[in-house]
Amino acid sequence: MTDTDTPKSSGERHIERIMDELDPSSDRFQVLQSAKRFKSSWVELGDRLLTVNSRSLFREWGYGSFEEYCTREIRIKKETAQKLTLAYRFMEKHEPELMARREEPRPLPDYRSIDLLRQAREEKGFSDEEYADLRKSVVEQERSHPTVLKQFREVAKSRQEPVRDPAVPLRAALAAARRLDTALEGVAELPDGYRDLVGEIITHLEGELEESEVRVDEG
Asked: From the CA atom positions of the chain, what is the Rg in Å?
C-alpha cells in the first residue's frame, strides 16, 4: 500500500482543509505542515509552536489562547504542546548534538523521553550517575519510550523519601517559574508588573541555587 492509499485520520483531513485555504509560505501553513509530520519531526513542530506562543500568532489566526489554537487547529492537547516545547528547549540547551541531527533521516528520540530527561535534570533531583544512565537509554541505546518511562519511574520512586539536598526544591521551583514565564508570553493584556515579578522570582531562585551549589562544593 502506498502513502496515498493509506486512510487519513479525521485530524489529518481537518488540517488539510485549513491548509488548502492558506498561502504555503505563511507561518500558519508551515505550522500545520509540521503538525502533519508530527511523529517524524516533533522537533520542527516544537520549534514552531514556541514561535506561535511567544509571538502570539494564534491571535492573528482567530484564537483566544495558545491552548485553544493547539486543540482546535492542529489537534494536539495542551499537555502535549507543553511537553513538545519544553523538550525542544531542553534539547536545544543540553543536547546540541541531537539538535544537529534534526535534518538526518535517522529518527530522533521520542519527545516524551526527552521530556523525562528534562524532568530528571531539572525537577526530580536525579544524581549525575542516574541521569547519565537515563540519558544513555534515551540517546545512545535509543530505547523505546515505555522502557525509558519504566526506568525513570523506578529511579523517581526510590527518591520519594524526604530530600535533604536544598538544591532539589530550588531546581523544581526554578523550572516551574520558567514554565510560567513561557506561558505568560502568550497572555494578552497582562497587568503591569506581572512578567517583571516572575522575572524577579527566576533571578532570585537562580541566585539561591547558585549559592546552594557553592555551599555543597565547599562542604
From this structure: 20
Range of the domain at 214: 167-218
First-to-final CA distance of the chain: 64
What is the number of residues in the chain? 219
Q: How many domains does the chain have?
A: 2
The whole-model pTM stands at: 0.62
CA angle, corner 104, sides to 108 and 142, nearest 5?
Answer: 30
Does the residue 108 lie in any domain? no
| pLDDT at residue 218, rounded to an integer | 52
Whether 91 is covered by a domain: the verdict is no
| Last-in-domain residue among 33, 48, 78 | 78
Task: Give, in order, the Cα–Cα distances in Å from 137 to each of 89, 115, 152, 182, 215.
Answer: 20, 13, 10, 29, 32
